[in-house]
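#structure-requests
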Amino acid sequence: MKLIVTRPLAQAVPWVTRLQAMGVEAQALPLIHIDPLADPAPLRAIWAHITAYSMVVFVSANAVQYFFAAAPAATAAQPAWPAGVWAGSTGPGTSAALRAAGVVQTLLVEPDPKAGNFDSEGLWQELQFRSWAGRRVLVVRGEEGRDWLADALRARGAEVDFIAAYRRCAPRLDAAEATLLKEAIAEPEHHVWHFSSSEAVGYLGLLASRLQPPPDWSHSRAIASHPRIVQSARDAGFGSVQEVEANVQAVAAWMADPVVGRKKVRL
C-alpha cells in the first residue's frame, strides 16, 4: 500500500523520508505550491516594529521560513528573535522551524503534544488563560487564511494584525507526480491519500476536473489530520476517510494497521 503525502514540497520531502525509514511506502505528490511574495518589502518593514507585538503567531513552517527570510541579520545586540515577544505555533513542524530559526523554547507557545490538536484551536488552549486586553498580536500566514484565532483574541481585547509571508498556489506537477496521480486514480485499492489541508483536497479536485473521464473517488481511501479536512475529502467523494493525528508516528502506525483507523489515532 502506497501513502501519498500531499503537503507542500518542502514539508512533504522530510515526511516521506521519515515514513520510508519506518517501513512505509510513501511518495510525495504536493497539492499546494508555495511561492514567495512578489514584494517582500512589507515583511522587511514589519521586522523593524516586531517588538511592538506581545506575540507573533505562525500558522505553518512556511510562514516561519518566509518571514525569517526577510529578517535583518542577527547580531549580539539584535538576536534572531527579540526577548519578550512570544512566538505562537500551531503544531510540531512549525515549532521545529521556529527553534531552527532561533526562537528560544521559553518564548515558544505551542499546543500541548498530548492533546494532539495541532491547529489554531489547539494553540488557543494554551493562550486562553493569558491576559490579552490591550496587547498586540501579529499573525503570519499566506495571502489568505482562517480568522478563527484572531477573532478569539479580539474577543479578549487584543489588537490583531495580519501579514502575508508567502503565496499558496495550485500544484505544478512534474512528470513523476503526474504519473503517480494517474496510478492512484487507476488503482485506488493500492493507494492512501494523506491530506493535511482542505485546500489540498480542493486542488486535487481541480487537477481531476481536467482529466477525461473524471475520476471516481468512491473507492479511494484517505487519512486527514483534522475533522474539517476529513469532511472536505468526504465531500469530494472519497469513499473512506479516517482522522489520524498529524505526526509521522501516528501515520506510520495507521499504515501498519489500518484497523486502528476506525477511531482517531493518537500517539
